[in-house]
Amino acid sequence: MIPSRVISYSPAYTVVPTYECFNQCAYCNFRAEPGQSPWLTLPEAEGILQSLHRGICEILILSGEVHPRSSRRTLWFQRIYDMCKLALLFGFLPHTNAGPLSYEEMAQLKKVNVSMGLMLEQLTPKLLQTVHRHAPSKLPEVRLQQLEWAGELRIPFTTGVLLGIGETQQDWWESLEAIASIHQRWGHIQEVILQPYSPGERQSWDAPGFDLLQLPEIVATARAILPADITIQIPPNLVQDDNWLLACLEAGARDLGGIGPKDEVNPDYPHPHYQRLQEILQPAGWKLMPRLPVYPQYDEWLSVELQESVKRWRMR
Questions:
Q1: Fewest Cβ atoms nearer than 10 Å: which of 31, 39, 62, 304?
Q2: In the chain, pLDDT over 70 holds for what percent of residues?
Q3: What is the mean pLDDT of residues 285-304?
Q4: Residues near 84 by beta carbon (within 8 Å), at least 6 away in sequence
């Protein structure tokens, strides 16, 4: 649990093994066509990690998806695994979000990640007829299965909902209730992100951004639906009005997510600098505090090696 007037964030840097993705979500500003985006090599990743300053803790391994039946799936997965190992070698704490994985892939990545994540987005299947028409891995049952497997494997997990992609208000509550139900079985969900859809330059879908005036009320309802030990996260780069960001915090949000040089998923919306966030939060009585990508109550779920890596950070 985060103390009442403390807002947390993770000092993070995103490493992208590949932007290629076999899904074609209509609102996506991240993906590249398969075969049209070079994969990041391990020497390139090493060069990136060597250049990072000591204040960064989390390395978010964020990847487009190679089809599960592709001949390159094994190579893709190994690249992600090796980049996590490399991040650990440099003293960082990896957190992977690479789309739906098999149970065996998740079990393997647990060895080299302190936490993992996957957005539920929305539970309603009707989006498969619209924005997810060409996105096979956005099947709601596939994403729910990931949350279940993460619980079975005792992986500290982040998930969330995407707001404003064609769903209804009732869909919001049903998606949040599904997350709450799975957490009540396994107790593994650290954070739920409430992410307002924000248009970008590369998407194919022509729709206005989510109405941020609704966001504080959604935060309040989410706080009532979700168990108290799940932290609600709001991306500050997608809530650019200071007053509405503060209203979301007053309604129950307590985390701002990974703050780094670039939001790869929403490249048109730069993360605010730490100093800028301080200028917003301090006058309103909030204290901004860095955190690790794994919450303390989950440390014992990690391997001995990962616990040692986390312990070094907690002692700083």
A1: 304
A2: 99
A3: 98
A4: 59, 61, 94, 96, 109, 112, 113
